[in-house]
Design brief:
10 helices; single chain; alpha+beta; 3 domains; PH-domain like; seven-stranded mixed beta sheet; 409 residues
């Protein structure tokens, strides 16, 4: 009987070298761009860790790398692996651990265990998403089971000021205070004495950073630009569209215009506006969707957008199916139309949706993954929110849906 081919190791010496060089090259840029105070962790240099961090900016993984100067294997969305040569280069240099957002990815868990067995340290963001309004997003309780499975010391890493400096919906970085540091280390013998619920609560509490309020000033001349990527419900008009320029955002329905101040306050320029911060407006938007009667919108789409529509080959590439297509958000489905190309995706056949980055949308069915990319002002969030609201009515509950309020984040 032939011997089985020996599986290659996940850990490579080049990963250590690459991460050290990347950290050296990016340190001045990160300090200059974000003005962040990164506190160096003084733990044992050769010790393995599982680093769990809250998630606020697109550069969070580099903050971790600068604070904990040891090679880490980062759990990253599988969308990172669909960008051709760039993805292959990233994979060769640092070999991230791919996982599929908005799903329970058993393969990612097994890869984490493999890396741990080989002596590697692992870093992940258990929230799985960046906040749109400064308040923490949902963290899956399953993180406690992962901690137990890996049996590593856990470095709990806090990033503060990230929402003020670089909101998820924005393309620009504001000048203001940021801090990143290890706030606590959980030893294996310490969490072994906890229940899963207790361990989850310790992790959630340590990483809970809420900044949807006045936490100091973060200045930029484009403080409000692209806020319409997050907001689509007007307190006057209901479902609406918005357009932002510089420091202001306006409802295209009623015309109310609001200025986004450096301390994150919202101030009405014309008309009246009942919310002081984006977090209050965002909470109202979620409540509005949770109480929306979708059956009242059977006659016409709730929204239509012009998009690029692609099929995703997981961890390999994207195949563009239609450019300049019309994407329709209907009460019980999404549909795509461009010339002879037509596709209908009923919510009953969709198993999950997720927003990637600032405004890309992934739609998961049992057989395929599709990706939607709109223009700079495209709001992907509304598609995901409406889908999950419909799913609640079908009782398509997952663990986070038990209260009927989960809208994808």
């Amino acid at each position: 009987m032939k011997n089985k081919k020996k599986r290659k190791k996940w850990l490579r010496f080049r990963h250590r070298v690459a991460q050290a060089l990347i950290a050296f090259a990016l340190r001045p840029y990160i300090r200059l761009r974000y003005g962040i105070r990164i506190e160096r962790f003084r733990g044992k240099k050769k010790r393995q860790y599982l680093c769990l961090s809250n998630h606020q900016t697109a550069f969070d993984q580099f903050f971790v790398g600068l604070a904990l100067p040891r090679p880490f294997y980062y759990v990253a969305s599988d969308d990172l692996f669909t960008n051709g040569f760039v993805s292959r280069l990233i994979k060769w240099l640092v070999e991230p651990i791919p996982f599929t957002k908005s799903t329970s990815d058993a393969k990612a868990v097994m890869t984490c265990m493999r890396v741990a067995r080989e002596g590697g340290s692992i870093a992940l963001f258990p929230e799985g998403n960046r906040t749109y309004d400064g308040t923490p997003v949902y963290m899956k309780p399953g993180v406690a089971k992962l901690v137990r499975a890996l049996k590593l010391p856990v470095a709990l890493f806090r990033i503060e000021g990230g929402y003020g400096a670089h909101p998820r919906w924005s393309d620009v970085v504001r000048r203001g205070k940021m801090r990143a540091y290890v706030c606590r280390v959980l030893e294996p013998e310490e969490y072994a004495a906890m229940t899963d619920e207790e361990l989850y609560e310790v992790i959630r509490t340590a990483l809970y950073v809420s900044e949807g309020c006045d936490t100091g000033e973060y200045r930029h001349k484009k403080n409000a630009e692209h806020l319409e990527r997050a907001m689509y419900v007007c307190p006057t008009c209901g479902l609406s569209r918005f357009e932002s320029h510089g420091e202001t955002i306006s409802c295209l329905g009623c015309g109310v215009t609001v200025r986004h101040m450096p301390n994150k306050e919202l101030v009405a320029i014309n008309g009246t506006f009942p919310f002081r911060f984006v977090s209050e407006w965002y909470a109202y938007q979620n409540d509005f969707i949770q109480n929306l009667d979708l059956t009242q919108h059977k006659d016409a789409p709730l929204y239509e957008d012009t998009v690029r529509f692609s099929r995703v080959i997981p961890c390999k590439r994207r195949e563009v199916l239609a450019r300049g297509a019309t994407l329709s958000l209907e009460w019980d489905r999404v549909s795509v139309q461009k010339g002879a190309f037509s596709m209908v995706l009923p919510y009953t056949e969709v198993v999950a949706m997720s927003v990637l980055g600032k405004n890309k949308l992934n739609i998961y069915t049992h057989d395929h993954t599709y990706q939607v990319k709109g223009d700079k002002r495209f709001n992907a969030l509304k598609y995901m929110n409406i889908y999950y609201h419909f799913a609640h009515q079908l009782h398509k509950f997952r663990e986070e849906d038990a209260d009927g309020e989960f809208l994808g984040l």
